[in-house]
Write a structure and sequence with these properties.
By secondary structure, this protein is an alpha/beta fold. The protein contains 12 helices and 17 strands. The chain has 2 domains: 199 residues, Quinone Oxidoreductase, Chain A, domain 1 (Alpha-Beta Complex), CATH 3.90.180; 142 residues, Rossmann fold, CATH 3.40.50.720. The strands form 3 sheets. Strands 3, 4, 5, 8, 9, 16 and 17 form a 7-stranded mixed sheet that branches. The protein has a 6-stranded parallel sheet with strand order 12-11-10-13-14-15, with helices on both faces. A hairpin with a 2-residue loop joins strand 6 and strand 7. Bound molecules: nicotinamide-adenine-dinucleotide (NAD), ligand AHE and zinc ion (ZN). Belongs to the zinc-containing alcohol dehydrogenase family. Class-III subfamily. Its cofactor is Zn(2+). Keywords: Metal-binding, NAD, Oxidoreductase, Zinc.
Length: 369
């Protein structure tokens, strides 16, 4: 079939709307009609050329929601008409990772996914016979995408897809990092670096966990109002202080926070986030994604004296087992999504969504197909 998609032809170039060919879903694959997709900073990161796994030309996008149009041979858990969220972290329920009980990182399709290909090593997208790469196994910047069955969460049919698409990455990542990775408890003190879709979702998760003090940190003070709405008790602009921000936070919190979260993708700030943690027990969770060749560093003494550095991917959430519950938590009012949608626009305008993100004017733009 033919459809419209936003194609990333090369690093640093604007996306171009193209008519593409989409091949039928093969064995174990599903054709999804996309209804809505968010634009996450990771899409911009890959488009910038900084992603070691970035391949071009590709169809980016990984925060979508849609409807099953057709299924390939052997697909048993989904049928046409089902409502789904594509998962960049699949869940096969059979691999060593899925069976470990220790992680949400499934290995079943990850290798080919990282190369921009379907599990059989080929692409379902092309233009004039030339293949276009998939992205994160999801490629949601297309009217139709082909996704492995094990990389689709079947969700409640009444959930508004133009909202719950944000559970495909940003909101789930932030809330999950607090509840699953850090396991924040009532009364804990939390610092959140970066107040985009991820950082604000961390704040939402921290409030759900009953955190006592939630310190929100950003150099763009226009983010502070929403941070407070989600539960931040203090908002701090590092530029307003002469002292390093980790020292400022240590001084504000009688020795440091119980948990900090880096939601920017800046390795210097990852260090600050670790070093603002309390001696003996403070834990810092890296969520931000940093470019090729970048490394984190700190004095080992920071770890010797009890601080812990962890990372979190998709909030530690197992997509097929747990994401439908997140959708229901939105429907029953336990999770807020609506305020995150600061802009909506058609696919034709998708480059504006990237501009708004880079200008710090949006939290999430949702593309409506
Ligand atoms: P965003 O662009 O919406 O937000 C980033 C925020 O960081 C902005 O508010 C910006 O003003 C702030 N910021 C930038 N530089 C800063 C600095 N020096 N000090 C303080 N604040 C600063 O991005 P997002 O969509 O929220 O994504 C955040 C990060 O999380 C990105 O690196 C993204 O790739 C990553 N991410 C990771 C996962 C995961 O599973 N680990 C999932 C989604 C996104
Ligand atoms: N491809 C990059 C890493 C990108 C990355 O870390 N991705 C996050 C999700 S970001 C979503 O917005 C993630 O889940 N990683 C785990 C995984 O399996 O990809 C690189 O450095 O190569
Ligand atoms: Zn994302």
């Amino acid at each position: 079939m033919k459809c419209k998609a936003a194609v990333a032809w090369g690093p640093g170039q604007p996306l171009k709307i193209e008519e593409i060919d989409v091949q039928d879903p093969q064995a174990g694959e599903v054709l999804v009609r996309m209804v809505a997709t968010g634009v996450c900073h990771t899409d911009a990161f890959t488009l910038s050329g900084e992603d070691p796994e970035g391949v071009f030309p590709a169809i980016l996008g990984h925060e979508g929601a849609g409807v099953v149009e057709a299924v390939g041979e052997g697909v048993t858990t989904l049928k046409a008409g089902d409502h789904v969220i594509p998962l960049y972290t699949a869940e096969c329920k059979e691999c060593k990772f899925c069976l470990s009980g220790k992680t949400n990182l499934c290995s079943a399709v990850r290798e080919t996914q990282g190369k921009g290909l379907m599990p059989d090593g080929t692409s379902r997208f092309s233009i004039n016979g030339e293949p276009i790469f998939h992205y994160m196994g999801t490629s949601t910047f297309s009217e139709y995408s082909v996704v492995p069955e094990i990389a689709l969460a079947k969700i409640h049919v009444d959930a508004p897809l133009e909202k719950v698409c944000l559970l495909g990455c940003g909101i789930t990542t932030g809330i999950g990092a607090v509840l699953n990775t850090a396991k924040v408890e009532e009364g804990d003190t939390v610092a959140v670096f970066g107040l985009g879709g991820i950082g604000l979702s961390v704040i939402q998760g921290a409030r759900m966990a009953g955190a006592g003090r939630i310190i929100a940190i950003d150099i763009n003070e226009s983010k502070f109002e929403m941070a407070k709405q989600f539960g931040a008790t203090d908002c701090v602009n590092p530029k307003s202080f002469d002292a390093p921000i980790q020292q400022v936070i240590v001084d504000m919190t009688d020795g440091g926070v119980d948990y900090s979260f880096e939601c920017i993708g800046n390795v210097q700030i990852m260090r600050q986030a670790l070093e603002c943690c309390h001696k003996g027990w403070g834990e810092s969770i890296v969520i931000g994604v940093a470019g090729a060749g970048q490394e984190i560093s700190t004095r080992p003494f920071q770890l010797v004296t009890g601080r812990v550095w962890r990372g979190s991917a998709f909030g530690g959430v197992k997509g097929r087992s747990q994401l439908p519950g997140y959708v229901e938590d939105y429907m029953n009012g336990k999770i807020e999504i609506d305020p995150f949608v600061t802009h909506t626009m058609p696919l034709e305008d998708i480059n504006k969504a990237f501009d708004l993100m880079h200008e710090g004017k949006s939290i999430r733009t949702v593309i409506l197909f």
